[in-house]
Amino acid sequence: MPPTLAFHREHIKPGDRLCAAISGGADSVALLLALHSANQTKRDALGVGLTAVHVNHGLRAAESDADQQFVADLCTRLNVPLHIHHASIPDRVAETRAAGTPETIEEAARNVRYNLFRSLIASGEADSVLTAHTLDDQAETVLMKFLRGAWTEGLSAIHPVVLVQNPSGRSGKILRPLISTRRSEVESYLRDLNQPWRDDSSNTDTSYTRNRIRHTILPLLRQENPSLDQTLANLAELAREEEDRWQSELNRILPQLLLPGKPVRGGGRSVSTTPGQSAVAVELERLRPLDPALRRRVLRAAARQLGVRLSFDETARLLALCGFQSIPTVPSKPGSSLQLSGNLFAERSARELRLSRTQP
């Protein structure tokens, strides 16, 4: 009996057009082979249209070209149509730096890939794009987010399913069917099939945060908890469910709390017509009876409506401005104000907190 690799099927249905993202590494090669095998099975076949997509990031010269050729040869052997996209990540990094929105090499590469995935869904070439993230990737991501001071939504890390909405109105999904599978299982599956894969030399470069976590930090932490990877994956699942629950609550109460613009004499509110300027406010007396956790989330949600993600410290400063906690350097009397990141300006009146933002 040929070897098999289990993967999550619950978001895949017969007739779907699936596009597997394949780099040439073990995880993505295993995903493509598992999907292809399941689609060929006479009994309980997936019954889907299967294609693949490969991004040549232009980062490793001849090695990147060899990865591309490996992927092309594999897809030809499997008779799987392949989309190949060429990008220059160094050029994108330089462009974002010049625009004042700098991206790291890792961020730029990821954004290029996911923009491509969304375009495949928007064009109707795929209903879902599948990536080969494993449980090991999930553990690394949770730890990386934790070290950077992420909130609950950040600790939810890699979501098994991400809904994609496009301006065209066409919707789709990003799926991670191997998110519960260990990397060791993936490699064992490939060895059983005598299927080679490509090793990315940059995966050993510890100038990248993820590689330091993978090769240095996680091995040390596993000495204290051999099941650490599963523990971190469990934390991501808990955080994701907690965040879903909070979001449901916020969707219910925010329309009752957030007010546009600022009050004007005689009643009503004025909304700025200055291009690129927007504002939202919340009455302090409506915030006061809320418990601390909900109060904090309301303020963060208000800022997010203006396109700004508040840090822990910035949220604490807003709470102090409202008079709900004490920070010696933050005034809390009417007329006080704060300048926060993302061109966000906070001003307290006698009755409300007003947030406004001028686009750069």
Features:
360 residues, alpha/beta, Rossmann fold, Uridine Diphospho-n-acetylenolpyruvylglucosamine Reductase, domain 3, 2 domains, 6-stranded mixed β-sheet, 5-stranded antiparallel β-sheet
Give a quick summary of the entry.
The chain has 360 residues and is α/β, with parallel strands linked by helices.
Give an overview in words.
The chain has helices at residues 26-40, 62-78, 89-98, 105-122, 135-147, 152-155, 183-192, 209-222, 228-257, 284-287, 292-305, 312-322, and strands at 17-21, 49-56, 82-86, 128-130, 161-165, 171-175, 258-260, 262-263, 269-270, 277-283, 337-340, 344-348, 352-358. The strands form three sheets. Strands 3-2-1-4-6-5 form a six-stranded mixed beta sheet, with helices on both faces. The chain has a five-stranded antiparallel beta sheet with strand order 7-10-13-12-11. It is built from twelve helices and 13 strands. Strand 1, helix 1 and strand 2 form a beta-alpha-beta unit. The chain starts with 16 loop residues before the first strand and ends with a strand. The protein is an alpha/beta fold.
